Structure formats: structure tokens, C-alpha cells
């Protein structure tokens, strides 16, 4: 344990049935601690022996973390970091999620307390994790009670709740929210459409895990696609894991609208999209004329 400015930092060893890790926690009083997960694990080094005995030295600009690895006296490892992990807390430090994203650096975590946030957020190309408290304690009530509601966009034609559109990859993580109220964005991929009600991934990648994407409704007199999620021309891998994607809706009068009430994929050829362990149900595409494809 070391003291840094007004915070205590703890580096400790932990293990489960698969691997062991060096982990990190912080405290403002040295008594109550918040865990921030593993800094690195034994599987990174392709061995199954344990990591243990972390010891940290802090210089003016660098953390030096020494640790024992293997069984017995196999070796002493050294890890370096130029700064500690940064947790940006909403609304305690930053009033909005977007203001915390704007202030974050790559590797940071934007940690959002329970509440309803009337926002439409954009990751802006940053390799950060934006998460509810579910990230740290696994309490699923945080997902229900930490809501990003995109029903009041500052620009009516940019009503997607969460956007990844600046070259992000799977180190840009959205974790543990209810995503709702999205109305879609005009022309998300260049054809005069309205799409991406809940989440848009455009010429980018993302990791979208353990969210409830629900109640996003797009109404448009031309093509409408992706009530819950659109992935378009992904330039990086995309992971969509363990989400509930339900009760999203498209309402369109276009003659040949392609649909995708839940998820719509377009022009996705260059990188891998993994959609696994999700519940995708009760999404609706409603048309007043013409053909219909891709309920999704």
C-alpha cells in the first residue's frame, strides 16, 4: 500500500481457478477500499503458475512494481507505469458522462453512479471504459438503475445514445448500463437513412457488454435501420456480449427499408464481429408500404 496525494493505493495478488493476477484498489481513508480489477494476469505470460508478492516503488513519474512469479523461486518480475490508473467519477467529479469522457485519457475508467443521465455520448476515439458500478461489484441492479437516456439530443438529427465513430477498437468499452430513448441519427453511413437508435459503431470498433439496450424508437419517412445497434463498415473488431437487446422499434414508410429492429450490420467485411450470449427479443419493424427485410 502506498499513499499518493489524497488517495491510498493498494497492489495485491489474487487468483481463481484459471489464473492469478496482480490487482489494484484505492481508498480515500485507508479503511474502505474500491477494487479496480486486475492490472495483469498470469495468462498474459502463457503460464499457469501463480503471480504473488507485489511490491511497489513510486518515483516522481513512474511506478515500479516487482512481483514473484511461478512456483517457489522461479523468478522476480518488474512492471512499469508512468501514472496510476485513473477513475473519473460521475457525477461526483464530473457532472455529465460526456464531460468525463472528454477529460479521460487512454486507459482511464469513467465510473458512473446510479441515476438517469439525459445524454447522447461519443467515445471520441478513446481507449477507455465507461461503466456503471456493476463493473466492480457485479450487482445487476446497477444496470437497471444507471440509465443513459438519449431522448433529448441537442441536435434532432443526432439522436443515437452512444456513438463509436472515431476509429475506436475493443479497448473502448461500454459496460453495465440501460441504454434507452434513442431516436437515431440521420445518415449514419451515407445513404440518407435514419439509424442507430441505441448504439452506433461506424468505421470503428467497440466492446459492448452487459447492457440493456431497450426502448429506442426510430421514426423516419425513408430508410430506417438498427433500432438497437448499428455496426457499419467496422474498421476494427467489435464485441457485443451478454446484453439484453429488447423492445426497440423502427417505424418507416420507405418502400424497401432493410430493417434491423434489434441489430443491423452493414458493409461489415474487413474485421470480426462477435455477437454472443445476448438476449435479442421483441424488437419491431413497422412499415406502412413496400417490402420488408431484416427484422433483427
What's the count of strands? 32
Sheet with the most strands, sense and barrel status: 7 strands, parallel
Question: Strand-residue fraction?
Answer: over 45%
Helix tally?
Answer: 3
Structural class: mainly beta
Oligomer: single chain
- Helix content class: under 10%
Mean pLDDT: 80
Question: Low-confidence stretches at least 5 residues in length (pLDDT < 50)?
Answer: 42-48, 289-295
**Spatial order of the strands forming the largest sheet:** 8-9-12-16-21-26-30
Specify the overall morphology: elongated
CA radius of gyration: 21 Å
| Terminal residue distance | 50 Å
Features:
single chain; 296 residues; mainly beta; seven-stranded parallel β-sheet; six-stranded parallel β-sheet; disordered C terminus
Characterization of this structure:
By secondary structure, the protein is mainly beta. Helices cover 5% and strands 46% of the residues. It has helices spanning 97-103, 134-137, 141-145, and strands at residues 2-4, 7-15, 20-27, 34-41, 51-58, 63-69, 75-81, 87-90, 109-112, 115-118, 121-122, 129-132, 146-149, 158-159, 162-164, 173-175, 178-180, 184-186, 194-195, 199-202, 206-209, 212-214, 217-220, 224-225, 229-232, 238-241, 244-246, 249-252, 263-266, 273-276, 279-281, 284-287. A 7-stranded parallel β-sheet has the order 8-9-12-16-21-26-30. Strands 10-13-17-22-27-31 form a 6-stranded parallel β-sheet. A hairpin with a 4-residue loop joins β2 and β3. The longest helix is centred in the middle third of the chain and has 7 residues, at 97-103. The protein is elongated. The termini are far apart. The model is unreliable at 42-48 and 289-295 (pLDDT under 50).
Amino acid at each position: 500500500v502506498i499513499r499518493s496525494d489524497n488517495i491510498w493505493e493498494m497492489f495485491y495478488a489474487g487468483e481463481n481457478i484459471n489464473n492469478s493476477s496482480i490487482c489494484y484498489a484505492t481508498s480515500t481513508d485507508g479503511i474502505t477500499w474500491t477494487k479496480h480489477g486486475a492490472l495483469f494476469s498470469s495468462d498474459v505470460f502463457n503460464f499457469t503458475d501463480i503471480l504473488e508478492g507485489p511490491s511497489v516503488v513510486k518515483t516522481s513519474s513512474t511506478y515500479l512494481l516487482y512481483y514473484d512469479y511461478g512456483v517457489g523461486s522461479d523468478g522476480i518480475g518488474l512492471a512499469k507505469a508512468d501514472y496510476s490508473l485513473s477513475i473519473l467519477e460521475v457525477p461526483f467529479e464530473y457532472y455529465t458522462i460526456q464531460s468525463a469522457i472528454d477529460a479521460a485519457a487512454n486507459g482511464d475508467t469513467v465510473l458512473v453512479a446510479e441515476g438517469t443521465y439525459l445524454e447522447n455520448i461519443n467515445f471520441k476515439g478513446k481507449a477507455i471504459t465507461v461503466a456503471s458500478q456493476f463493473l466492480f461489484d457485479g450487482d445487476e441492479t446497477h444496470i437497471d438503475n444507471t440509465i443513459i437516456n438519449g431522448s433529448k439530443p441537442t441536435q434532432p438529427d443526432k439522436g443515437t445514445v452512444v456513438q463509436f465513430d472515431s476509429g475506436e477498437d475493443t479497448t473502448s468499452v461500454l459496460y453495465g448500463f440501460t441504454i434507452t430513448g434513442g431516436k437515431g441519427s440521420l445518415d449514419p453511413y451515407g445513404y440518407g437513412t435514419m439509424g442507430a437508435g441505441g448504439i452506433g459503431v461506424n468505421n470503428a470498433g467497440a466492446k459492448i457488454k452487459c447492457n440493456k439496450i431497450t426502448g429506442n424508437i426510430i421514426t423516419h419517412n425513408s430508410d430506417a435501420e438498427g433500432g438497437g445497434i448499428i455496426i457499419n463498415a467496422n474498421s476494427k473488431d467489435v464485441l457485443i456480449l451478454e446484453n439484453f437487446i429488447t423492445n426497440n422499434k423502427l417505424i418507416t414508410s420507405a418502400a424497401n427499408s432493410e430493417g434491423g429492429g434489434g441489430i443491423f450490420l452493414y458493409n461489415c467485411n474487413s474485421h470480426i464481429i462477435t455477437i454472443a450470449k445476448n438476449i435479442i427479443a421483441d424488437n419491431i419493424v413497422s412499415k406502412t408500404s413496400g417490402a420488408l427485410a431484416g427484422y433483427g
